[in-house]
């Protein structure tokens, strides 16, 4: 047998890499240590060390999930608290009704599993809680119906520590649905989601798979979108903002009047104007910024008898400007111009305005890339 075939067979036997950076290992390890210690310590103060130690096994497994696999559905707060309460109640009822035999513990585990799936709180350590309740030692047995109290206290303390620690270390937990960006406040999907994999496609694929997948649909959609973004970056071949930007930039100043801005937009067929003061970008003005003041100017009123006050760009411009550098890759411009409602991106070198990228510039750059990557060539005229 050749060395290469042996290595290939060995690689198939090895588990797949976790794709978790080492700093995340350390972050999760310290969080699990902290959560387990605080929950065990506080429970031992309230109910005694013996009871706290008896429940420590399932708690340690839960700590691994909520700190190391925090994005999965098995690690969410409802999964932890719900499974502990449900499994603890099932185990307590089975022990009181059928005794503390091994088969009773096995039945309690199976019943807890079905109920956890039914109530959408599947959490593997919950099975350990059910078994621990059935096979409880004398200290736990003495609690009687109050057995659920230390069980729930453990779960609540662990979840509280997980929420605080994960958020302090930059991790969004619990993992709720990501807020949807709706610049137009309509029911239409975002432009980037109208073609490609949809939420309905993911639901259908998961149903057809017929197996449990330890990832939420939102997380799966994020993975697919990130994969598409990397593929787009590779296919665009390093096109940057400097490659597609307009360099002859029409701009206003803070002292530019409303009439002058309208004339510039109309004569150059533009929708936005950067506002410069002493060569520095200080704002941006769009058609929507000018419509309100223009309508106010057009209304008849007693002020018109004494002349109308001049409206200047300093009064109507948006001072928060999203800008990019010339090296900004084209694929990173797409969400800014397609989903965030921006029509123009100023391109800066340091603090100097060197160009703007509009939606028209973006479309022209994508068209050129499609033509360059196509096997068909446009015939010369």
TrEMBL record:
Question: Is Transmembrane a UniProt keyword of this protein?
Answer: yes
Q: Which UniProt keywords apply?
A: CBS domain, Membrane, Transmembrane, Transmembrane helix
Cited SMART domains: CBS
Q: Where's the CBS domain?
A: 245-300, 317-374
Q: Which Gene3D superfamilies match?
A: CBS-domain
For this protein, the record's Pfam families field holds: CBS (PF00571), TM_HPP (PF04982)
Q: Could you confirm whether the keyword Transmembrane helix appears in this record?
A: yes
Q: Where is this region: Disordered?
A: 175-194
Q: Which InterPro entries match?
A: CBS_dom, CBS_dom_sf, HPP, TM_HPP
TM ranges are 25-44, 51-69, 75-95, 102-122, 147-165
Name it. Answer: HPP family protein
Q: Source taxonomy lineage?
A: Bacteria, Pseudomonadati, Pseudomonadota, Gammaproteobacteria, Pseudomonadales
């Amino acid at each position: 047998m050749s060395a290469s075939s042996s290595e290939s067979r060995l690689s198939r036997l090895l588990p797949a890499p976790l794709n978790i950076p080492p700093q995340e290992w350390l972050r999760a390890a310290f969080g699990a240590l902290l959560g387990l210690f605080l929950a065990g310590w506080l429970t031992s103060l309230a109910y005694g060390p013996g009871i706290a130690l008896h429940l420590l096994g399932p708690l340690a497994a839960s700590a691994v999930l909520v700190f190391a696999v925090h994005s999965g559905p098995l690690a969410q707060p409802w999964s932890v608290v719900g499974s502990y309460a449900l499994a603890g109640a099932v185990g307590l009822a089975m022990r009181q009704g059928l005794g503390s035999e091994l088969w009773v513990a096995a039945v309690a585990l199976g019943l807890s599993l079905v109920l956890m799936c039914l109530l959408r709180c599947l959490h593997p350590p919950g099975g350990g809680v059910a078994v621990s309740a059935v096979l409880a030692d004398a200290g736990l047995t003495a609690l009687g119906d109050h057995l659920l109290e230390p069980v729930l206290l453990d779960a609540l303390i662990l979840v509280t520590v997980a929420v605080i620690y994960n958020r302090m270390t930059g991790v969004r937990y619990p993992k709720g649905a990501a807020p949807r960006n709706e610049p137009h406040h309509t029911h239409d999907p975002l432009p980037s989601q109208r073609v490609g994999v949809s939420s309905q496609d993911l639901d259908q694929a998961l149903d057809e798979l017929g197996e449990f997948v330890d990832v939420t649909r939102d997380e799966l959609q994020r993975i697919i979108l990130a994969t598409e973004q990397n593929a787009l970056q590779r296919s665009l071949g390093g096109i940057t903002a400097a490659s597609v930007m307009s360099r002859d930039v029409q701009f206003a100043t803070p002292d530019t009047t409303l009439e002058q801005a309208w004339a510039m937009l109309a004569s150059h067929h533009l929708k936005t104007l950067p506002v410069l003061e002493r060569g520095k970008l200080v704002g941006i003005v769009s058609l929507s910024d000018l419509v309100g003041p223009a309508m106010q100017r057009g209304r008849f009123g007693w002020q018109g008898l004494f002349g109308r006050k001049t409206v200047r760009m300093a009064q109507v411009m948006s001072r928060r400007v999203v800008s990019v550098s010339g090296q900004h890759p084209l694929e990173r411009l797409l969400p800014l111009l397609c989903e965030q409602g921006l029509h123009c991106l100023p391109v800066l070198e340091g603090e100097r305005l060197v160009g703007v990228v509009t939606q028209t510039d973006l479309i022209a750059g994508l068209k050129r890339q499609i033509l360059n990557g196509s096997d068909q060539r446009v015939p010369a005229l």
